[in-house]
Amino acid sequence: ETGVTQTPRHLVMGMTNKKSLKCEQHLGHNAMYWYKQSAKKPLELMFVYSLEERVENNSVPSRFSPECPNSSHLFLHLHTLQPEDSALYLCASSQDRPEWGTSYEQYFGPGTRLTVT
Amino acid sequence: GQSLEQPSEVTAVEGAIVQINCTYQTSGFYGLSWYQQHDGGAPTFLSYNALDGLEETGRFSSFLSRSDSYGYLLLQELQMKDSASYFCAVNGQNFVFGPGTRLSVLP
Asked: Is B11 helix (H, G, I), strand (E, B) or coil?
């Protein structure tokens, strides 16, 4: 398989459940990202990992917990979510984090459509 | 803080030319990227500008003016399949995306 894959594609969970989203990239990239995309809102960067080290956490509530066991895999662990957390969660990767003079394009996975009931 | 502005919607007819503008306020600016996202799909990379001027890739061109903190995406010879949302994104310390412009191409 090539590119960036995400599982599951759709997830419905209650507010008391615990679930995990999985992302895998087959591109040999060093940086991976979690984004949240809600209706009529910009893509919100949640977490950034570079070489398996978390380098950014954009004030994301603790009910979202990322994990990056190696450079190819990224997880987002979910627990006690709220209905407003319902959104499309996108994983992306890039060769490295942005730097001057280099267009590190991001490759996105298809996303997980999450509904919290 | 960092912020980007784009028009929310643009409508044009097949064969026409459309320009989608993007203004930004950010720190640590390296360049401006553009992404396309069809309904139900993932964003895909279109172009990148690090320096002032126009970059052309087929029917799509992108322009950047660093002094004006402004860029645009130009789509020529519009086709129905170009109906999608288009996002500008600042490449800075990280990637920051604009709110997106929904382009509708009419027959």
From this structure: strand
Q: With the C-alpha atoms ordered B17, B19, B20, B26, is the resulting torsion angle positive or negative?
A: positive
Q: Cα dist. B68→A101, B20, B52, B54, B80 in Å? A: 19, 16, 10, 15, 32
User: Which residues of chain B have a CB within 8 Å of the CB of A45?
Assistant: 94-97
Evaluate the CA torsion angle B85, A90, B6, B68 in order and state its sign: negative
Structure tokens given for B1: 């803080």
Output the pLDDT for position A101: 67
Please check whether residue B71 touches A, CB under 8 A.
no
For the residues A36-55, what does the mean pLDDT come to? 87
Q: In B, which residues are within 8 Å of A99 by CB distance?
A: 30
Quick one: which of A98, A108, A88, A110 has its CA closest to A41? A88
**Quick one: DSSP state of residue B34?**
E
Q: Considering only alpha carbons, which residue of chain A is nearest residue B86?
A: A42
Please, which pLDDT band fits residue B28 given cuts at 50, 70 and 90?
A: confident
Q: Cα–Cα distance between A96 and B102 in angstroms, integer?
A: 29
Q: Chain B partners of A98 at a C-beta cutoff of 8 Å?
A: 30-31, 91-95
pLDDT, tens digit (0-9, with 9 covering 90-100), for A59-72: 899 999 999 999 89
